[in-house]
């Protein structure tokens, strides 16, 4: 009896190792069920002797739940197989072994279990993907405040995934290796785009007679182009061509000069066009000339552009012709223009007419 009890206690102690929960439960259930059947038979025989007219409640259950009797265990019938005894013995020896004893086992791959991190430093020594991205010059610190990007990069395999993207951007698109790092820093989500989809978008640009060098320049400057559908890019190119009466070569030159302008918010583009034409007083041909010379003007806030124009045109007395030659003055910081104009005015050098003496160029 004592030996069986020790065996049961040992089995319960190592139940996760032996997975014997089901074995004990089955034995307990079988014995409990027999006991309950015996009790049921006795109570049924007693009910047969009840006086006529006595009603038996249909809600009464004569079989108690198995959980109520599961604490009755006959330990005398419980035994362990030799295999189970061997497992317990091996586990005891392993647990009694001191961590200070010398060992030949290589544990260099074992790392401490740390909570979630917001930096790539923890994975730098073990992740080939992160090492290759760092070699390319990717600014990994820019991604560390974005959990979605962190999960994407940590779970990206270099050999089967990242390597294919690097070859595509460099060999198919033509982006120089020196530009791959900054490009991926701007748009890491390109690494989850399908390669076939991006290839189709590159083929669309080639079909529109974009030169290979221009395509590489566009993608390097503004890689988000590859996230837009072909229909979206086609609609935007048509919008610029019709709105500003551009030729095909002018559209391609505009895309290469400032690719992000093509995917910019259309409402802002329309607001700037309205301000240039209606509030500033430039004609359509002049607006087209300004667009090709300084497209960044259309990415600015229309209200701020109008304020800068009013100061340059009204306070500095600069005519439309001079502004048309140097449209970048409209995107300069107004306080800087005011400071320089005030300084020139204090010296008596606030002369912006090239036909007169002491002329100061808008560029200067």
TrEMBL record:
- PANTHER family the UniProt entry points to: CGI-12 PROTEIN-RELATED, TRANSCRIPTION TERMINATION FACTOR 3, MITOCHONDRIAL
Q: What is this protein called?
A: Transcription termination factor 3, mitochondrial-like
Alphabetically, the GO molecular function entries are: nucleic acid binding
User: Sorted alphabetically, which InterPro entries does this protein's record hold?
Assistant: MTERF, MTERF_sf
Q: Key word Transit peptide present in the record?
A: yes
Organism expressing this protein natively: Diaphorina citri
Keywords for this protein: Transit peptide
Q: Does the keyword Coiled coil apply?
A: no
Q: Name one Pfam family in it.
A: mTERF
- Cellular component terms (Gene Ontology): mitochondrion
Query: Gene that codes for this?
Result: LOC103515891
**Member of which family?**
Belongs to the mTERF family.
């Amino acid at each position: 009896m004592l030996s069986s009890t020790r065996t049961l206690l040992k089995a319960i102690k190592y139940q996760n190792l032996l997975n014997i929960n089901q074995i004990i439960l089955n034995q307990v259930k079988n014995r409990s069920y027999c006991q309950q059947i015996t009790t049921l038979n006795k109570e049924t025989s007693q009910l047969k002797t009840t006086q006529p007219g006595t009603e038996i409640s249909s809600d009464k259950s004569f079989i108690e739940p198995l959980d109520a009797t599961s604490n009755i265990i006959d330990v005398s019938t419980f035994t362990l197989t030799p295999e189970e005894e061997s497992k317990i013995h091996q586990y005891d020896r392993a647990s009694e072994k001191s961590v200070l004893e010398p060992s030949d086992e290589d544990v260099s791959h074992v790392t401490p279990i740390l909570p979630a991190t917001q930096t790539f430093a923890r994975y730098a020594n073990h992740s080939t993907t992160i090492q290759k991205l760092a070699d390319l010059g990717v600014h990994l610190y820019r991604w560390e405040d974005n959990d979605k990007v962190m999960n994407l990069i940590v779970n990206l395999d270099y050999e089967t995934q990242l390597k294919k993207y690097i070859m595509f951007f460099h060999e198919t698109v033509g982006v120089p290796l020196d530009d791959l790092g900054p490009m991926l820093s701007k748009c890491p989500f390109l690494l989850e785009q399908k390669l076939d989809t991006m290839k189709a978008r590159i083929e669309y640009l080639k079909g529109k007679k974009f030169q290979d060098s221009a395509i590489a320049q566009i993608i390097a400057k503004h890689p988000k182009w590859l996230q837009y559908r072909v229909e979206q890019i086609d609609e935007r190119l048509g919008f610029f061509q019709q709105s500003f009466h551009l030729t095909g070569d002018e559209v391609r030159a505009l895309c290469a000069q400032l690719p992000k302008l093509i995917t910019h918010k259309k409402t802002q583009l329309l607001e700037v066009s309205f301000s240039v034409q209606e509030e500033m007083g430039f004609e359509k041909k002049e607006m087209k000339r300004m667009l090709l010379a300084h497209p960044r003007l259309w990415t600015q806030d229309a209200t701020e552009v109008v304020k800068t124009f009013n100061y340059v045109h009204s306070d500095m007395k600069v005519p439309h012709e001079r502004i048309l030659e140097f449209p970048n003055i409209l995107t300069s910081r107004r306080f800087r223009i005011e400071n320089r104009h005030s300084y020139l005015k204090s010296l008596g050098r606030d002369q912006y007419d090239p036909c007169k003496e002491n002329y100061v160029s808008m560029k200067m």
